Each structure stands twice: as C-alpha cells, then as structure tokens.
Amino acid sequence: MKGLIAAGGKGTRLRPITTTQNKHEIPLANKSMIELAVDKLVSAGITDIVISINEGDTHFPTILGDGVDKGAKLTYVEQKGGALGVAHVLKNARPYLEGDDILFYLGDNIILGDVKEFVNTFYKQQLNCLLALSQVKDPQRFGVPIIEDGRIVKVLEKPENPPSPFAVAGIYLYDQNIFDVVDTLETSARGEYEISDAHTSLIDQGLKVGYAEITGWWKDTGKPGDLLEGNGLLLSQLKSQVDGVVDDSVGMQGIVVIEEGAKITGRSFIRGPVIIGKNTVITDAYIGPYSSIGSHCFIQDVEIEHSLIMNNVTIEVQSRIVDAILGHGVTIKSKEETFPKGHQLVVGDNSYIEL
Predict the structure, then answer these.
(1) What is the pLDDT of residues 15-33, one digit of tens each?
(2) For 191-212, what is each residue's pLDDT tens digit?
(3) What's the CA gap between 171 and 146, in Å, rounded?
(4) CA 110 from chain center: how many Å?
(5) Which of 4, 67, 186, 208 has its CA 20 to 30 A from that of 262?
(6) Superfamily assignment of 241-337 in CATH?
(7) What is the pLDDT of residues 204-262, one digit of tens each?
(8) Where in the chain is the domain with CATH 2.160.10.10?
C-alpha cells in the first residue's frame, strides 16, 4: 500500500496566517501538520508516500526533504491545473500510484489513533474502498454518508440538511478501481471534482465500500478555532520532558515539554499541557494550559493561555493573551514604550484583534 497526502490548496479560511505559508506548514504542538500526517502513515507501515502540492510550489518540498529522516520515501507531485477538488488530487497523482492499494490522507486532518486499524479492516473485509467516519456537530461542512442497514448507500457533499451526524473524515483507502471512477467524474456546481461523487459511483457500480468509525477524536483544522483545538488535543498527548534550562525560581505543573536550548527564568510559571521550542527564552511570564511556543522566541512579563505561538516571536507586554494564533516573526510590544502613547498596528487582511 502506498500513501497519498493532499497538501495543496490556498487555506483561505486561515488567512492571514496562510498568506505567507502553506496551511500544512502550520505547527501544532511544534510539529507541522504535514509532518504529523507523514508520521501517521509511517507508523502504519506505509513508507512510499506521494505528497500533492500546489502547482509551482518549490518551497514545500524543503520542509521534509526526501523523507529519509522519517524512514520514508517522499515524492512531491504538483496538482496541475490548480486546486480542483479532492478527487482531482487522485486523478493527478495516478501515474505515481498505479498498481498499488492507496491510503489517501487529507493533510490538514489530525486524529488521536493509529491509521493501521483502517488498513487492517480494509484487507480483512476485502474492500474496494474504506471510508473513515467521525461523529461531528456540524456535518454540513463535510461529506456525509447515508447509511442503511449498516451499509453506506450514498455520500453527499456538504448537504444543507445532513442525513446523519457522521462526516467522512478525510482518510480513504482504495484499490485501483478508484481511478476508473475519478476519470469519469464531471465537475460539480462549484467547479470541483468531488470525492463524494467518486464514492457514490463506487457504490452504484456494486463495489464493496465499507467504513470504520474513528475512536477517540478527529479534527479538521480548516478554521482558526479548529487549529487551537487541534493544538490542545495534541498537547494533551505529550509526555513531560525538560531538555532546556529551568531556573529553580520557576514553577511547573502538568505536562510540560521544554526543548533543547530553551531557557526559563525569573518568576515564570508554566502550567501544562505546554510545549516550549528550541532556544526560546521566557522570563517573568506565565504560560498556561494548551499553549505551544515555537523556537527562537523571546517572551517576557506576559500571561499566555490556550494559544499557538510560532517561531521567532517576541512578546514584551504586561498583558494577558488568550485564544491567540501568532505567526512567525510577530512582535508585540508595550504601548508604554512609544510616544505618543497608543496602539501601533500593522495588520494584514482578515485579521482579528481585541484591544
């Protein structure tokens, strides 16, 4: 079985964070989402992996390189013609996947469990297709299966009135029959090749389409709130490890990971689950639960809680920051340091600020 990871798209719902980076580069618990996806496949024994990227993207392949460090072989394939739907990712990657079964993983999905259980079910039940399902509060955002007598009889894409509380969770297993289907698809009203149409076509042709419900949690990280929730879920799975320097004056509770070269000083208090990246300096600050702090940051005199802070961030302000997502290189200073006093803001499109 080969792996296919979808890592393209524009990530418009996550702007301005995705204005300067692919959304699959965003770190959750200090690991990029693409790295998390590759780790999931490798842990299931799938090491030959194709990664679908945006047309013309030369930067993305530099993140993980050829995959040797992960024990994998990574092949990057540009999605020719642009982002034309999830089924188009399969259609475009076909030359690299012919002759093998496929585990197709949407790279902005995170799950608690191992995907090996889906591989085992796929082969045990001798299926042509297996769909991972998850119960969600807002199934209208996803592909939704119609299930009758324990069988999927149809899949609807983002229905206004969902027939079930299940979402097709962005983890699909196929044999080679999927390519005959995607080659015959026509674009939908929104101009995309819909993966839900491909699944319904497999069913209509009498092929064996099964499903398995995800145990534990699953998260699609399409919106800022989803990123924070996913970040928190991953942080809660960490084990405490301190490789940096922590002064005796610093208090710590709960799950705390402090990476190599980091230094925590002064009256700081760290209450986990928290991860603090390499070579970050934190002094006289409170870092509260469900916060990830990237590498090479400087943080002083501030309280931070339930936030995602990326690399090279400087925060020097006597304030409290909660539910925040700060991109690489962000600087937050006190308004007391400038004259005339006031809030100096340089803000990109679609930003959200509370003062």
Answers:
(1) 666 666 667 888 889 998 8
(2) 888 888 899 899 899 999 998 8
(3) 17
(4) 6
(5) 67
(6) Hexapeptide repeat proteins (2.160.10.10)
(7) 999 999 988 887 677 666 677 888 888 998 999 899 999 999 999 999 999 999 999 99
(8) 241-337
- Range(s) of the chain covered by CATH 3.90.550.10: 2-235
Contacts for 104 with CB less than 8 Å, ≥ 6 apart: 3, 4, 6, 89, 90, 171, 172, 173, 174
Contact 244, 262 (CB under 8 A): yes
Please name the fold of domain 2-235.
Spore Coat Polysaccharide Biosynthesis Protein SpsA; Chain A (3.90.550)
Length of the chain counted residue by residue: 355
For residues 255 and 265, what is the distance between their CA atoms, to the nearest angstrom?
18
| Per-residue b or e along 236-248, where b marks 16 or more CB atoms closer than 10 Å to that residue's CB | bebeeebebebee
Judge contact between 264 and 249, C-beta under 8 A: no
Taking only the tens place, the pLDDT of each residue in 64-78 is 888 888 889 999 998
Please state whether the peptide bond connecting residue 95 to the residue before it is cis, i.e. omega within 30 degrees of 0.
Answer: no
- In terms of Cα–Cα distance, which of 239, 235, 303 is closest to 269? 303
Handedness of CA 322, 169, 147, 212 (dihedral sign): negative
Encode burial over 82-104: b for 16+ CB neighbours within 10 A, e otherwise.
ebbbbbbbbbbbeebbeeebbbb
Residue 201, phi then psi, degrees to nearest 5: -65, -40
Place of tokens 């084990």: 239
* Cα–Cα separations (whole angstroms), residue 190 to 10, 59, 156, 170, 187: 16, 29, 14, 19, 8
Measured from the Cβ of residue 253, the count of other Cβ atoms closer than 10 Å reads 11
- Nearest Cα neighbor of 211 from 124, 273, 295, 152 is 152
Q: Which residues partner with 2 through β-bridges? A: 102
Inform me whether the pLDDT recorded for 47 exceeds 70. Answer: yes
